[in-house]
Design a protein that fits this description.
The complex is a heterodimer of chains A (225) and B (100).
Chain A (H helix, E strand, L loop, with lengths): L2 H10 L2 H20 L3 H10 L3 H9 L7 H12 L1 H13 L4 H7 L5 H14 L3 H24 L6 H16 L2 H5 L6 H16 L5 H15 L5
Chain B lengths: L2 H25 L8 H43 L2 H17 L3
Helix pairs in contact in B: 2-3
The chains are: A mainly alpha (225), B mainly alpha (100).
Chain lengths: 225, 100
């Protein structure tokens, strides 16, 4: 875990201040509409820190709160983190858990994807994970707080940025991954299965199922290259 | 709804989400480096990138697709993330403005 890696990750993830800020703002405005106080809304974004889990628990909002169903929904929507965590163990297994486990509090889809890509280019560095996670968390929690602090409405370019920037950012990582490919079949499989799951099933599972199927095709190829 | 009850629910959900984030890391300690699971995890990232992008393009509609393709092509040509994101967002905004 190096300072240089932290700085590299922080700078690379700065665009997420905007996209996560806008998305956090939308989430904050929704909490505001439900009648949640600023402190509770900010704490929700800080502790749960998961757009999918927060969106799903919002859709289940009732009085009394269905706590067990909400916990099950959080487990189902965030089960992908088990795979990401296991992959991070492969990269950073040499580090003491007391150094890694606090960083995982801020683990997000995009910071994991960026860290995986950076590990291919520059070697594994847990500082990069923490650095890239930081703007994402600051944007998300800050956006939620901003919904209470300023008379803003999430519309137009703000909403578009929140919705599209994460996807576009991950797309910029693809060229660095392509050089490791032996054939297009794994990626085609990932794309087609993800499309089918998102279209006809639960979009929240499309990354995990699509990527998992593509990875199985990768494993049938002769080497890891 | 009682403030304390709401605070309790937020904490329970927070602990659940952190358990999912840290769980894979902790459980993977028992995994062999040369095993099938380890190889699966080594090969997973690129495939997950693609699946993530497809899901994002689908939910973002035509404007999202245009923005993502422009960002990808710009990155492949320039190798600069800021240029790719600027071009991608500009293209998505333009596509959205003309009603795509």
């Amino acid at each position: 875990m190096t300072t240089a890696g932290f700085r590299r990750g922080l700078v690379a993830a700065l665009p997420f201040l905007l996209s996560n800020g806008a998305a956090g703002l939308v989430m904050g405005l929704t909490y505001k509409g439900l009648g949640l106080g600023a402190a509770h809304a900010i704490l929700f974004s800080l502790l749960v820190y998961s757009a999918t889990a927060q969106a799903i628990t919002l859709s289940m909002w009732a009085s009394p709160l269905p706590i067990v169903a909400m916990v099950v929904a959080c487990i189902a929507t965030n089960s992908r983190y088990l795979l990401m965590g296991a992959h991070l163990r492969q990269l950073f297994g040499g580090l003491a858990p007391r150094k890694m486990l606090p960083s995982l509090f801020l683990l997000a889809d995009a910071s994991w994807l960026m860290t995986s890509s950076d590990a291919d280019r520059n070697g594994p560095d847990a500082g990069y994970l923490l650095g890239s996670s930081t703007p994402m968390a600051v944007g998300w929690v800050g956006g939620t707080a901003l919904a209470y602090a300023a008379p803003l409405a999430a519309n137009g370019p703000l909403r578009l940025a929140a919705a599209l920037l994460p996807t576009m950012f991950i797309a910029t990582l693809l060229p660095s991954q392509w050089k490791n490919m032996r054939s297009p079949w794994p990626w085609l499989t990932s794309a087609v299965i993800a499309l089918l799951v998102a279209r006809f099933g639960d979009p929240g599972w499309s990354m995990l199922i699509g990527g998992g199927c593509g990875t199985l095709v990768s494993m049938m190829e002769p080497s890891d290259a | 709804m009682h403030d304390l009850q709401l605070l309790g629910v937020i904490c329970i959900l927070g602990v659940t989400c952190y358990a999912m984030r840290a769980g894979g890391y902790v459980l993977a300690a028992s995994m062999r480096d040369d095993g099938i699971a380890a190889r699966f995890l080594r090969l997973a990232p690129g495939n997950l990138f693609i699946a993530f992008i497809v899901g994002g393009c689908l939910s973002g509609g035509p404007a999202g697709l245009v923005g993502t393709v422009v960002a990808l092509v710009t990155m492949a040509i320039t190798a600069r993330e800021w240029a790719a994101l600027g071009a991608g967002f500009g293209a998505a905004l333009a596509a959205s403005t003309i009603g795509w």
